[in-house]
Design a protein that fits this description.
Largest sheet: 2 strands, parallel
Strand order of the largest sheet: 1-2
Order of helices and strands: HHEHHHHEHHHH
Radius of gyration: 19 Å
Strand content: under 5%
Number of strands: 2
Helix content: over 70%
Length: about 220
């Protein structure tokens, strides 16, 4: 369920993120026009933003609810407006997920905008599917970060909460380093997945996203706020 008033408020809060993505898009197009000559072949065998987005999704997911909880916004909305925990969870999830999805589709937008002047190593249809699969995997990482963040909210207030927080940050950093290596040269690369096992990769990603969404929403409902 989505609360329209809360969604509008949340989207306004993240308006700067969308302006940054738009500036990134226009700046990238201008940069490619400046450095490349017409007819050049642009390599798209590796998604240019996938690795950095994994790190962004991991830590943004871990902190997005933590910030609202620490600032009292969650309790404020539940007291002032008839907003359920499920609505709050879904709205914050969408607010964080949409910019990540847009970022994953930037290479496809580049291809469609630059296609008359440049050549690309992957066909547009294949690149679209690569961007779609990359978006799903980034959302999986984002949802995993959300689950970690909700766990930390519930357990970081105790005696050993600070040590738990440091351990979680170190663990997420280690996970990112390994995923980053696999994303560039191994089976975690969305291009490799599309070229070798597209349906299996998509099914696994969607199943993981559904499972993490369920566990995150369930934990949010049971939190003592």
């Amino acid at each position: 369920m989505i609360n329209s008033a809360l969604m509008r408020w949340t989207m306004r809060r993240y308006a700067m993120v969308y302006w940054i993505i738009l500036a990134f898009l226009l700046g990238g197009l201008a940069f490619l026009f400046l450095i490349l000559s017409p007819g050049s072949v642009i390599t798209t065998e590796v998604h240019p933003f996938f690795s950095s987005s994994i790190l962004l999704a991991m830590f943004w997911g871990a902190g997005i609810y933590n910030r609202e909880y620490r600032n009292g916004n969650l309790l404020e909305f539940m007291m002032v407006r008839p907003v359920s925990r499920e609505e709050f969870f879904n709205n914050m999830l969408l607010a964080g997920a949409i910019p990540l999805i847009l970022l994953m589709f930037l290479p496809f937008v580049y291809v469609m905008a630059l296609n008359p002047w440049f050549d690309f190593s992957l066909p547009p249809v294949t690149l679209f599917y690569v961007c779609l699969l990359a978006a799903v995997w980034v959302e999986v990482v984002f949802l995993a970060g959300i689950n970690v963040g909700l766990f930390l909210i519930a357990h970081s207030a105790g005696r050993y909460g600070r040590y738990l927080l440091v351990f979680a940050i170190a663990a997420m950093t280690a996970v990112f380093i390994n995923l980053n290596n696999l994303a560039r040269n191994g089976p975690a690369n969305p291009v490799w997945q599309v070229q070798n096992h597209p349906w299996i990769s998509t099914s696994i990603a969607l199943a993981a996203a559904a499972a993490l969404y369920y566990t995150g929403r369930r934990r949010m409902k049971r939190m003592n706020i």
